[in-house]
Amino acid sequence: MGTAPLAVETAPAKINLALHVTGRRDNGYHEIESLFVFAEVADELHASLAEADLLTITGPFSQGLGDGSTNLVARAVAAFRTRWPDHVPHGLALELRKNIPIAAGLGGGSADAAAALRLMLRLGTGTIDNAALFELAVELGADVPACLISQPLLARGIGEIIAPLAQFPSCHIVLVNPLIGVSTADIFKRLNGYDNYPLPTLPSPMTRPAQLGIWLAETRNDLQPPAVKIVPEIGMLIERLAEAPGCMLARMSGSGATVFGLFGSNAQAHQAAHELRADLANYWVTAAPLIVP
Ligand SMILES: C[C@](O)(CO)[C@H](O)COP(=O)(O)OP(=O)(O)OC[C@H]1O[C@@H](n2ccc(N)nc2=O)[C@H](O)[C@@H]1O
Ligand SMILES: Nc1ncnc2c1ncn2[C@@H]1O[C@H](COP(=O)(O)OP(=O)(O)OP(=O)(O)O)[C@@H](O)[C@H]1O
């Protein structure tokens, strides 16, 4: 039996239920308005003591993911140590259990970076300025600040201006990925327009899944059309999920290629996942509850 880890952080998958591209900055980044939620499907980061800092990667999606300085976990740890050199002593062995597909629109790498930052925060003794932590997070990736929160939120700016939602209806999600990686930068480059209308105002209070469904019907994912051109399977998956009994909305998350189906019922979500898995044996299919405040 191995020794118990010092600490474990989960890195939940991010889903953009709606994503409007509303502008473009001079540095090439795009302004977005997005409703972010997180599912109870997660990578895991296990920390234990070692002679020197070390990162190993295990799990179903570890293949092809470098454990060197380009890995977002290693980059997050290095950036944290540069900013706060004395907070956590050197000699940390991290095991990243990769359960979320890579380059899938589920923010896996961003979630891992955020989990690494939370871990560093927990393992140290001093106080860290929260605003400075969020500034460091956005330098690692536009999605990393949202992943630090990992609860339903509205994001603006390049995704870093965050407003967590105090309440959110209990929902279930089915995620389907054709195991075709998509580059986020490529999809943004292929956008035809980037001055789309902002998100409508969310109902308040929003307690029922049906209210969310009505609001979502007025929204889009502006990255979906360019992504469908590159990966036509996305269109087929949206049609399949939309037909499932109880599915309130089928759409692509982030820059793809993962497609989600949103359900009010756990049983209907699991039934849809079961049927898709039977037909699409080579795809990644999972059903999970959304994390709510
Ligand atoms: C599309 C989303 O997944 C929505 O949640 C995110 O905005 C992307 O977040 P991310 O993967 O953390 O993004 P980054 O690693 O910072 O950016 C990857 C690339 O996507 C493009 N990018 C990203 C975010 C954004 N608001 N505008 C962009 O144009 C840029 O070309 C950038 O070089
Ligand atoms: N720990 C990590 N997990 C996943 N990808 C990583 C990691 N570290 C670096 N990367 C690199 O980051 C890139 C994007 O991977 P990621 O899985 O975060 O994409 P994504 O789900 O499309 O993200 P987003 O939704 O934020 O655009 C990949 O090319 C991958 O090689």
From TrEMBL:
Pathway: Isoprenoid biosynthesis; isopentenyl diphosphate biosynthesis via DXP pathway; isopentenyl diphosphate from 1-deoxy-D-xylulose 5-phosphate: step 3/6
Keyword Membrane appears in the UniProt entry: no
Record domain GHMP kinase N-terminal: where: 71-149
Documented EC number(s): 2.7.1.148
Active site location: K14, D143
Catalysed reactions, semicolon-separated: 4-CDP-2-C-methyl-D-erythritol + ATP = 4-CDP-2-C-methyl-D-erythritol 2-phosphate + ADP + H(+)
InterPro entries: GHMP_kinase_C_dom, GHMP_kinase_C_sf, GHMP_kinase_N_dom, IspE, Ribosomal_Su5_D2-typ_SF, Ribsml_uS5_D2-typ_fold_subgr
UniProt keyword Ligase, yes or no: no
MF GO annotations: 4-(cytidine 5'-diphospho)-2-C-methyl-D-erythritol kinase activity
Annotated positions binding ATP: P101, I102, A103, A104, G105, L106, G107, G108, G109, S110, A111
UniProt keyword terms in alphabetical order: ATP-binding, Isoprene biosynthesis, Kinase, Nucleotide-binding, Transferase
SUPFAM superfamilies: GHMP Kinase, C-terminal domain, Ribosomal protein S5 domain 2-like
Coiled coil regions, renumbered to chain: none
NCBIfam families linked to this entry: ispE, PRK14608.1
Family note: Belongs to the GHMP kinase family. IspE subfamily.
Its job: Catalyzes the phosphorylation of the position 2 hydroxy group of 4-diphosphocytidyl-2C-methyl-D-erythritol.
Protein name: 4-diphosphocytidyl-2-C-methyl-D-erythritol kinase
Organism: Devosia algicola
